[in-house]
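Table 4 source record.
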Amino acid sequence: MITATFNIRFGFLVDAARLNIILEADVQEYTSEASYKVTNFRIPCHNHQQVLPEITIRKENGLWVHTDSGKATDLSIAVGQAIDATDKAPIEF
């Protein structure tokens, strides 16, 4: 069950951290599953060009991980930090 929907904006380091790209994405919080579905990754002012596929993440032992693999990536960490910076209290799994 979706309990909250909000947008985030965050910096994402690419090309061995030599380039920082600002991205926006839509977030849906699923309280019953203790996870966040993140969709529509886009560059600000380019709302119709999705640049990354959707992901589902959760906060586990203080680390943002993908729900399917249980592993952290640069993307899950960057998105998770953006969620932490909102007024939405992350669900710890």
